[in-house]
Design a protein that fits this description.
- The chain is built from five helices and eight strands; from the N terminus they run αββαββββαββαα.
- It is α+β, with helices and mostly antiparallel strands.
- Helix 4 runs antiparallel to helix 5.
- The protein is elongated and about 65 Å long.
- The chain starts with a helix and ends with a helix.
């Protein structure tokens, strides 16, 4: 699976190309690719999230790989398997960036059910900063005494951590 940094840096506005990346049993398209997919192939629900890693909002669409063969891909598109992604080429014309930016701006960020605290810049090995929610999860993990906990208590604790991390990834990262 490609990293989000590589995916976003690989998006090219100089031609109309859709890149569909395999993520588990799904294909996902980001930014320009998502825009072109929704505009020319099928209007899937577009998600907009803030990427902490890239420090920017990203838009994406996703659908099951199994449904790819039933998509209404116009004959004007050429399809190529590029190993880590499928590439659907419409034309070599440049993308209309003004239309893309207007489309992206029209997609709202999801309302946060639990608004994470602002980053508190705790350094881990002098390499990166973490948010206060991440710091809280690490502190809870460090304080949990697995030697004296019952298997049920361990399972419940793990479930709570998973919920916290799920909330964090839903609202902070892509």
């Amino acid at each position: 699976m490609a990293k989000i940094k590589d995916i976003i840096s690989g998006e090219d506005s100089s031609k109309q190309v859709i890149k569909l990346y395999k993520e588990g049993i799904f294909y996902k398209a980001y930014e320009y690719s998502a825009y072109l997919f929704v505009k020319h192939i099928k209007a899937y629900q577009v998600k907009r999230k803030y990427s902490v890693l890239l420090k920017q909002d990203l838009v994406s669409i996703g659908f099951p790989i199994a449904s790819f063969s039933s998509l209404p891909i116009p004959d004007s598109f050429s399809v190529a398997d590029c190993g880590t992604y499928q590439e659907l080429s419409l034309s070599r014309e440049a993308l209309d960036l003004v239309a893309f930016e207007a489309w992206k701006a029209s997609i709202s960020l999801p309302a946060l059910e639990h608004k994470p605290s602002s980053p508190i810049n705790k350094e881990v090995n002098n390499r990166f900063a973490i948010s206060s929610l991440e710091y809280d999860v690490l502190q809870r993990l460090q304080r949990f005494n697995i030697d004296t906990a019952t298997p049920m208590a361990c399972m419940l604790f793990l479930s709570e951590l998973k919920q916290s991390l799920s909330l964090m990834s839903t609202h902070n990262e892509l």
